[in-house]
Amino acid sequence: MRLDKFLADMQIGTRSEVKKLIQKGHVSINDQIVKKVDTKVDEETIVYVDGLRVDYVSYEYYLLNKPAGFLSATQDSHYPVVMELVPCIRKDVGIVGRLDKDTEGLLLLTNDGELNHRLLSSKNHVLKKYYVQVDTDIPDNAEDVFSKPIVFEEFTSLPAEFEYIDNRSAYLTICEGKYHQVKRMFEKIGCTVTYLKRVQFGSLTLDGLESGQYRTLTEGEIKDLYEY
What we know:
Mean pLDDT: 95
Helix content: 10-25%
Radius of gyration: 22 Å
Strand content: 25-35%
Structural class: alpha+beta
Low-confidence stretches: none
Number of strands: 15
Number of helices: 6
Oligomer: single chain
């Protein structure tokens, strides 16, 4: 790749800004100042800007415990967005499986397009587990209802796993991710969801992350997601 693209990808500046840095002699490779913006480099090239090393990062993987009130978006003119909580290096990092503004919990962010596709593909049936609180007592037939397909106007849900906690709280594990799906499924048994938190996505759990906190995925976790 070109040197100016290398530096722009690492958010050293815009393409035009990094071109000026290069042309003014701020960039060096192997202790040699380089002033040609189209110098060919690769991911292993050791590049310095004003003496500070810049390592190329191809893919980023982050696990975020999303707080309520944040949109699952890269930018918005009215509400805070989850990208404000994670200091990504690359501009192409996106969100895998969005959560509603008022929903909390596990959110995966990455620029690995293949992994994103695998996790969201309906044929792979990646499990998503939610902690749910509702406004009225959960009926006795809830487990039976959720264990069977539920017909909605635009889709039919696959059987889900229901775990009773108490009269007004439970876990629900689904393998789709349709719009407001969990809330709509509980409406089918006469309950309105008052609190919703995703606690597991595939092989990932929140693992002690406090609300608003994030961490990078380990190589083992990335491998597990690919094999999930």
